Records
---
Amino acid sequence: MRPTLSKLGSVTAMLAGLISVAWAQPPAVQPDQARPGPVLAGLDGPGFAVAFAEDTGVLAVACEGGTVHYWLPPEILGVRSGEQTPHVLSGHSGPVLALAWAGGPVLASAGTDRKVLLRTVPEGNVRAVLSGHGGTIRALAVSPDGKLLAGGGDDGVIYLWDLPSAQMRERLVGHKNWVVALAFSPDGRYLASTGFDQSVRLWNLNAPEKIPVIPIKPLAAAEASSFPMSVAFSPDSRTLAVGGTDGQIRLYNAADGNLVRTLSGHASSVTGVVFHPNGNLLISGSRDRTVRLWNVGNGQAIKTLEGHTAWVQGVCLVQGGTLIASVSADRTVRLWDLRPPGK
């Protein structure tokens, strides 16, 4: 017999309490010994984004079929490859392109139907349908305090919604083309955005008129122009990682926009980047079908994780940074274990 949603919610809440205690500090990881974990199958189409809620332990994936699939903590920990069908939320009439957890059980999703939905998971209740934006939203991010949702997309405008009221608060104008990735700094002071106008913008949320622009240039004249595809802040908010269509990852000083170093190794567009809570490890996913681990301090590659049979479309950290989740156009989510062997 399948458990009811109310029981699932109770189990999720109970596990979330344990999770918050166990993962209060960055966990011990051994990236050079990273290894494959469970494979979560059953997606109804290619996956476009993946997001994990640390406070509830729920892993969610945005799919081309207009659905959001999700797994509860017991399923993430115990699932075997090919044996578990995810829970499915409908509500979008086109591919879902972006996800962001808005605090607690509330998940924000955006799709090609131009809808931005706020829903509770696992119940699936729609709390709000956000309005005020123009065109398709392709990127979402939530501020560290959970009070602000940023969305950007085809019209080049970044929209800021107040989450408690679900009302539009502000519009940030500056990009000349699609906005494709967003990230708040952990200290809550800045919002980084990347666009197909080949720029990365750092928006000072206390003074939005102060907008330094980081130009993204190819590393050599022979290379095609690079467009920034993904962006992430380091835990101390001092470093900005930007993944490009040229396969490079560039690390910038967030204070002045100066290039610190470049990480080379991917053979195609870098679709996702995320810093580990310890600040020394960067994880990236790429259309070259790999997930790669990097030493932030010296820029050296640590390990390449292979297994996906199609583009990797997004990466995130799971269970306090002990696991990596990667979603792919091959209709699977793969988990990669960062814990020291034997744990």
---
Amino acid sequence: MTELKNDTYLRALLRQPVDYTPVWMMRQAGRYLPEYKETRAQAGDFMSLCRNTELATEVTIQPLRRFDLDAAILFSDILTIPDAMGLGLYFETGEGPKFERPITCKADVEKIGLPDPEGELKYVMDAVRSIRKELNGKVPLIGFSGSPWTLATYMIEGGSSKAFTKIKKMMFAEPQTLHLLLDKLADSVIEYLNAQIAAGAQSVMVFDTWGGVLSPRDYKDFSLQYMAKIVDGLTRENEGRKVPVTLFTKNGGMWLESIAATGCDGVGLDWTIDIENAAARVGDKVALQGNMDPSMLYAPKERIEQEVAKILSGYGDKGTGHVFNLGHGIHPDVNPEHAGHFIEAVHRLSKPYHK
């Protein structure tokens, strides 16, 4: 494989010395870029874009042509695994993802098998291989998956939800059925992420988008223990270097110590927690990723810069262990110029913290 020219992101996650704070953005390949909209129109629909190796590669690379980002993230969707399990994923305009055949009972769970990463999910691995080739060592490639709990919410609710009543009903009335599903999903995520690593992903991330809707006890039982199982099952070294793993639970700030104790390398923070507080709580156990409010990119450039300075100052002069990011995905109506200014400001303003 081609030698990596910029490994700042990987070194920061492994808490090794870096010259500046690396930065990338969740959903950096997406609807805020006019070139993305053109490519998506060419593909026809979202999943066709994900399944087209050439176009998935193109949209992954697009933000790197515009901005001096320190990592690329695979263009895909968190629901690829449930889709490959035969639940019939489709997208309703303006309503997000839906499943034709949601999970309703134990028999449904028993029926589903683990998808083959080089079979039903080969299109994802083909995209990883193609993107790595196209990147040509410029920056590392991040692979990812949804967490078992988050995947299960979509599979049981049949799509997005506000109250999560169906999955919580199963959680409290038939916990053994839900544990059976979560265990299958954890095994599937391990195979899926290890296949991404074998195909060329140099770091992986688990998105636990809906872990924050759980009580502390239920979070540990139904979300965190399955992410810990994934961390234990992952390939942690490939191509002669370590493969860092980051866990991100949205609204999970109260559980930072428990997340850090899983053995992951990095913990993602949303914007609802102060980074100084987070850093004090986890010490030098893990790197932190985050955590500017994505809506800050609507602000004037001076205000964006002030916020970048505040977050850098909050993390302090540890010299490493911080990957700057938004606290969640970039909004589709953000001005790309503001995103560019944000990235430049992180690089410029972080250098004094790394002397």
